[in-house]
Design goal:
Elements: H1 6-9, E1 13-14, E2 21-26, H2 37-52, E3 58-66, E4 73-84, E5 88-97, E6 105-112, E7 135-136, E8 152-158, E9 173-180, H3 196-200, H4 205-211, E10 218-219, E11 222-229, E12 237-248, E13 251-260, E14 265-274, E15 276-277
Antiparallel strand pairs: 1-2, 2-4, 3-6, 3-11, 4-5, 5-6, 7-8, 8-9, 9-12, 10-15, 11-14, 12-13, 13-14
């Protein structure tokens, strides 16, 4: 399958029927079992950007509640601008399928203009191998390979190579490099910040690192996803450094630092997941 263009596939169209009403048509190329929640979040934020109509207002933070599964295909997005000032704007969007009933997901986000201020960095690049030194992730034939991953070159910078025999469990941490096969670029050459939610929404394999090859099969639907957008980059290789701090009672929490290959912390994300025992016919995060 050829890799897809995230910018094209998450584009939205404004409808004249009512203010703040948009549509999109998402292909199945961004599916795990259903479309990636991070990709759906990107679609909703595209509609937010269109409604604001001000390129100087850039994403600062966004929080998504995933309410019910949304299939690929035609989507509807309803956007409400809560406040738009000189410096920042707060926006809410509800995304749903036009072919399946259910509330879908809801995103609340802040967009802002860059301003003069303090510059503090109290984080260090994680202990991972650089992309050229990292192992290409090549799952075996028995593993589930989501369509979503066909759109990336993925390399393991830290963690156990779970697609090989004899790997052992360790800390619930994983570092993976993602490179979009069709780079999502803005007109000025920057990496599109709205391409961050899809790679942030890839946290469940950190839990698998702790469970090991003999752990119970599971899948982990997202309940929410929060992304803080911190800095621009022009890089192509993006690192997700994920730590699943706790999993119990059918739920798990994880956080994700997102770095470029030049040592810039470009985003930070957190997520709560629902852990479900996986029947054989339901794909899990073993990729």
């Amino acid at each position: 399958m050829d890799p897809q263009d995230l910018t094209r596939d998450t584009a939205v169209t404004r409808l004249a029927a009512a203010p703040g009403w948009y549509t999109a048509d998402l292909p199945t190329a961004w599916d795990f079992r259903t479309p990636s929640g991070g990709v759906l979040m990107t679609v909703a934020m595209r509609a937010m950007e269109a409604e604001l109509g001000d390129a100087a207002l850039r994403p600062i933070s966004a929080h998504t509640h995933f309410c019910s599964p949304v299939p690929a295909g035609p989507l509807e997005i309803r956007v409400e601008v809560l406040r738009q000032g000189n410096v920042a704007a707060q926006v809410r969007a509800a995304l749903s399928s036009t072919t399946m009933p259910g509330p879908g997901l809801e995103v609340s986000a802040t967009f802002g203009r860059e301003r003069d201020g303090v510059d503090v960095m109290d984080a260090a690049m994680p202990p991972v191998r650089l992309p050229a030194e990292s192992t290409p992730i090549v799952p075996g034939a028995r593993d589930f390979r989501p369509r979503f991953l066909e759109n990336f070159e993925c390399r393991l910078g830290h963690g156990a190579p779970w697609w090989t025999r004899g790997w052992a469990p360790g800390p619930a941490r994983i570092g993976r490099w993602f490179r979009y096969r069709v780079p999502p670029r803005l007109a000025d050459g920057r990496f599109d910040p709205l391409a961050i939610p899809p790679i942030a929404d890839t946290m469940p394999p950190s839990i698998m690192q702790a469970l090991g090859p003999d752990g119970p099969p599971f899948h982990a639907p997202s309940l929410d996803l929060t992304v803080h957008f911190l800095e621009d980059t022009a890089a192509e290789c993006i690192l997700t450094w994920v730590h699943a701090r706790r999993a119990r009672a059918g739920y798990a929490t994880a956080d994700c630092e997102i770095w470029d290959d030049r040592g810039r912390l470009i985003a930070f994300a957190t997520q709560m997941m629902m852990l479900r025992r996986r029947p054989e016919d339901i794909p899990g995060p073993n990729w």
